[in-house]
Give the backbone structure.
Amino acid sequence: MISLEVLAVFFSVSVALGLAPGPDNIFVLTQSALYGRLAGFVVTLGLCTGLMVHTTAVAVGVAALFQASALAFTVLKAVGAAYLLYLAWQAFRSGTSSLPDDANSGVSLRRLFGRGIVMNVTNPKVAIFFLAFLPQFADPVQGSLTLQLFILGGVFMLATLVVFGAVAWGAGFLGAWLKRSPRAQTIMNRVAGTVFVGLAFRLATAER
């Protein structure tokens, strides 16, 4: 089984990676600011569910397909970019609205959860990153590699919950300011739309 020392190092590295600016934490930031902390936490849970998919893919060897097949990588990349452009379109047409409290965000939590899953699963670079990253901390001498990879994936998800949960909480203060300023809501929606377009471009131009 994986030693506690290795798990501690892996968790620390995972936290550092979560803190690095990227599509997922920017996504949590914008959704939390627009819809409140609860929405940010739900999006984070969706992203972590997507990480479960990637962990399973790596554990059973499916992720290797995306590293070996240019077509599979391109198709998944196109789906992810199209979804981000759809979110951008929604943000640009939102305008202003009355942002409610966290307890009732005014937007379907199921939809936000789904957004998090799709955002993560349709990013092929996450699958390839997991394929390259997780096995470095697994040791065949310590037992089943499949079990070790699932454990590492679980630790990575825990680190993601901690970091992105903090991002969602902090962004909630920005959301409180948006409630008091309709003009700020419009600006934030435009910023969110621009971020989604930027993320779509980044994903569409990503290389394996």
